[in-house]
Amino acid sequence: MYTGLLHLHHWMPFLWLLLILVVLVQNFLVWKSDREFNASLQRQNKITLILTHIQVTVGLIMLFGFNMDMFSDMGTLMGDAALRFKYVEHPTTMLLGAVLITVGNAKSKRAESGHEKAKAVVVWFGIGLALIALRFPWEAFLQGA
């Protein structure tokens, strides 16, 4: 089961990164032009939010369901930069990024005009993406590991 979750957690970011970049560009164009914020764009925002939540949930299941013994010796864990990144920095930052994306979706749903909806998505999803990109394991992602 762990191997399946690991593969899902590795391959889903390819789809997620593509989708969030498309969503950010489309919402930016709505925000800065006369384009309309339509149901299709709202659906894409929601799909991006759902994929974000699935990715974080799979990661948390892998972290707490299969690696709890890592937290028994926090001195060693925090002293090793690679272990600290994998078990502390990466999960914490991803969770915060997902929270920001969730806030952006909620603010977009509550906004009055299409421009305000798109602005909320661009700002909050963009900050969430930036935070996620800071602690994303790029070397493993790009090498297929």
Question: Mind explaining what this structure looks like?
Answer:
The protein has 145 residues and is mostly helical. It has one domain (2-143). It has helices spanning 2-32, 39-66, 74-79, 81-110, 114-134, 138-143. It is elongated, with a radius of gyration of 17 Å. The mean pLDDT is 91.
Radius of gyration: 17 Å
Total of DSSP H or I helical runs spanning 4+ residues: 6
Main sheet record: none
Multimeric state: single chain
Total domain units = 1
- Form type: elongated
Regions with little confidence, pLDDT below 50 for 5+ residues: none
Which helices and strands occur, and which strands form pairs?
Elements: H1 2-32, H2 39-66, H3 74-79, H4 81-110, H5 114-134, H6 138-143
Question: What are its keywords?
Answer:
145 residues, mainly alpha, 6 helices, elongated
Structure at a glance:
The chain has 6 helices and no strands.
